[in-house]
Amino acid sequence: MRIEKIELIWVRLPFKISFKHFLARRNFSDNLIVKTTLGSGITGYGEGIPRKYLTGETIKTTFKNKFLLKKLIKREIDLDGIKNFTLHYSRFKKYNSLLCAAELSILDAYCKSRNIPVSKLIGKIKNKQISYSGIISADNFAKVAAIANEYKKRKVSQIKVKVGTNNDEKRIGLIRKILPDADIRIDANCAWSAKEAVAKINKLLKYDISAVEQPVKVNDFKGLGYIKKNTDVPIIADESLINLQDAEKLLECADIFNIRISKCGGIFNSIKIYNYAKKHKKESVLGCQVGESGILSAAGRALASCLDFKYAEGSYNKYLLKKDITNEDLSVSKNFSAKSIYGSGIGVSINQEILDGFLFRKWM
């Protein structure tokens, strides 16, 4: 089973609403789509979302790094070889979204050729129904209240709130008032210094927050350790966790690992990090990146179906995107749950007309 052709596609997906956190405000997402064609003619699609503040990648640098894809063309598909390929290059971090898109496209094609779901490569499906978290961005009080009330109506039980602004305490207080029984965790996206984080977190504890995600800058492992020692709330590492080497550094200073498939370089690398965390008695979160299409949503669903995550994020497709590029709607249901996928490959097909409409650039 040989890889005959690989295409690199840049699409810009517009949002219905803007989304804001400490590091960015977005009205659209520049996403990388990789299409792999096998010698048999079977095609597979993968997706990655380059973010400079995460891996140092931009959509433009991924095109400059297409030499990685050239290494895969005309190659026989060997799953161990693909695992080793992505694990090797993920050490450099600057290729991870490209590695993710390439790996997913190859696995999609490979599994289609065998008429099996990608989840078969991960393990046995044990979570047939997955509960997803609601997200509230760092927005004004009126928008925050409207979203919190919508979650209350939908009976969403887990909420992640973006913080890092001057009115965090009032916003969290407002959300807690509307959602008195919800599991509320906060995400600072690198907003604070270690001492500042301790002061702010300890003020927010009265609102019964369940965890704090990435309170300090990416490489401030010492700062994370300081926060862990001086607050009584679990610390989630996100931007600090890109590859397996980061996971090793985070053992002593974080309680929970946020694994995002694109950020971490694909499914196989994500599993490596998950297994490493589990071995060391750490919990993991299935994270997502703002603007994921149905491709990454399907990949996340496969992981969440086979592995046990403390929280799951993603599958917000129709709630955020004006149009998705997949024919299938991978969006969470009314109460923010979703079923496992059993179709072959990653379980979605591409709407070529919509993909072409969002196309910016292509390499083949």
Tell me which oligomeric state these chains represent.
Answer: single chain
CATH architecture name of the largest domain: Alpha-Beta Barrel
User: Alpha-carbon distance between the termini?
Assistant: 20 Å
Spans of 5+ residues with little confidence (pLDDT < 50)?
none
Globular, elongated, flat, extended or rod-shaped: what is the shape?
globular
The structural domain count equals 2
Derived structural class = alpha/beta
Biggest sheet strand order reads 5-6-7-8-9-10-11-12
CATH homolog superfamily of the largest domain: Enolase-like C-terminal domain
CA radius of gyration? 20 Å
Order of helices and strands: EEEHHHHHEEHEHEHEHEHEHEHEHEHE
What percent of residues are in strands? 15-25%
In round numbers, the mean pLDDT is: 95
User: Major beta sheet, specifics?
Assistant: 8 strands, parallel
Instruction: Assign the CATH class of the largest domain.
Output: Alpha Beta
DSSP helix count? Answer: 14
The CATH topology of the largest domain turns out to be TIM Barrel
Strand count? 14
The amount of helix comes to 25-40%
In short:
This protein has 364 residues and is an alpha/beta fold. It has helices at 52-55, 59-64, 67-70, 79-90, 96-114, 141-154, 168-178, 194-204, 221-230, 244-250, 267-279, 294-306, 317-320, 352-357; strands spanning 3-21, 24-38, 43-48, 129-131, 134-136, 158-162, 183-187, 209-213, 235-237, 256-259, 283-286, 311-312, 337-339, 359-363. The chain has 2 domains: 3-119 and 350-363, Enolase-like, N-terminal domain (Enolase-like, domain 1, 2-Layer Sandwich); 123-339, Enolase-like C-terminal domain (TIM Barrel).
